[in-house]
Amino acid sequence: MALLSVKDLTVKFAMRDQSVTALNGISFDLAKGERIGIVGESGAGKSITGFSLMKLISKPGYIDGGQILFDGQDIAQMDEPALREIRGNQMAMIFQDPMVTLNPVLTIGEQMVETLRAHRKVSREEAEQIAIVKLREVYIPSPEERLRQYPHELSGGMRQRIIIAIALLLEPKLIIADEPTTALDVTIQADIMDLMLELCTTNKVSLILITHDLGVVNQMTERTLVMYAGRIIESGRTREIINDPQHPYTQGLINALPQQTVPGQPLKQIPGSMPSLNNIPMGCAFHPRCAYATARCKTEIPSTLRFGAVEVACHEVERLKAGEARANEVGLAKAKADGPATSAESANALADTTGS
Amino acid sequence: MFAYLVKRAFQAIAVMFVISVVSFAIQDNLGDPLRELVGQSVSEEVREQLREELGLNDSFFTQYLRFAWKALHGDLGTSYFFKEPALTVIFKKLPATLELVFGATFIIIGLSVPLGVYTAIKPNGLFARVVMGLSIVGISVPVFLTAIAMIYLFSVELQWLPSFGRGEVVAVFGHWETNFLTVDGWKHILLPSIALASIMLPLFVRLIRAEMMETLQSEYVKYATAKGVRPMRIYFIHALKNTLLPVITVGGVQIGTMVAYTILTETVFQWPGMGFMFLEAVNRVDTPLIVAYLIVVGFIFVVTNTIVDLIYGLVNPTINIARMGA
Hints:
heterodimer; A: alpha/beta; Rossmann fold; four-stranded antiparallel β-sheet; 12 strands; B: 12 helices; 75% helix
């Protein structure tokens, strides 16, 4: 049985006169010990997905429908006391910016001890001992001293290590990491990712990694979900998604990587930008930015199609797969040059940049 | 720590210097001291002679130096009315005022924290709306009106509490007589304290509420929730501690201001403190007493602000007092 099974999850935000849909019926499974990545541009709904798994979406957001089955229990239906049992205990979260995640007026020790004591009956001394062990696991030098220190006395990378240590304190089954390295120095990013990968593998913890960095996803995860405008538009094994992306949006994301560009040439961007939630286009939300869009794309929401281990939500995917279909369309010639042909090279480029 | 204190001491000296110059300038321009000292029958020649003897014909600078020199030796002149050193007069009145300020501060701290926190947690609740509405009324109505309304209600109509004076006081040491050791003393200080608190309390409730609501939106509060920490701990440990940092800064200044507000409260309640004394001194053109009052109040301001800065340093770990000013 899957550790986590999300079924048709819909999250809405109540605005003054209407409510906008931030997540539109997303479904996915996560096995025990499995690591998945959620990718997409800003505004795709990645972070909201992460937060709603813990039912941590703040007002005016609310879960409008669907199930979040974690260990067989539906988190979407839980009340606050039941959620408190799970949060930090069976499911831990790593936030985006370590500079603002820790409370500036409480010591590191205090913030670690309170987490333990919120879930386990341990004395302060015992809790501190556990905290020291966990700080060692994340390679924090002289952990005893760190417990007496305040967050501002530590660097960003050090703070994120401490947040990882806090996530591991109660040996959770699942860690949700929301862009854990976006706010950090590039040189620290690789260290933190290596550390997370190591800890997740040795402790057999499932990981949901939310990021817009495809290189990181390639390095860290086994499966990937690509999100656009509140829906999962492509999902499958990470290697396949990066080597052979099916959805035009995924293709665009991979082609937009700087490694895909000849030095000195402009980067290959996806034209346009992510629609705002209160103005999501009819039909396939991606159609205004898609080079392959047809009349059908503008009116009908594509259903998810399965090709082997990959699921894609695109009307034109079969046409894209068949090369002749593309050749017939004169107008698509340019798009084709920027299109999926380069994806084999992209995987190599990714391997080069992320290989540690 | 030592370096910081020395630095603060120099700042305090600079502030006191400015206050003394301004106060002294007032003395120099507030009527003719001789008119208060001698009767109308004294001839112009004698007046001129006295003026020369008292040094009133010297330049402003010389007079100020003489005044400052005496002030440093604890002599702020002699009250025309009480025929006593001005400082002695003030020190006799000081305990009554300080006890009043203490009573009001106690009410403010005791009520503003729970009310501010509650209205921040449940901003749309009925109770929160009532508190916020009342706080607007509290800020808008002047102290003397609140005081008179309370006297009418509690002293005249209900006859629960006395309307004037300190009542039964107990001598503690020196001039210090306290209200807090007798039931009668408590009864007497209650209404004046509430009246004095009435202006600052709403301000503090609103300040704590605003800061608290902002803190509750912060990432670290969300993170604490994600760790499974209990709501009460999140409100009172995670959020309130951060909320209080700006509140302490504002609060320190306001406690100083409250000493000034005692003039109104003490006058309405005939409270024998130095605010009441100051108003009388103004009526009698008792210049040395006015000047001494200004200097003492200025000194209280400087001291409270220094203490507040030190407390702020203790509460805020990002400020290291031990290393400050070094």
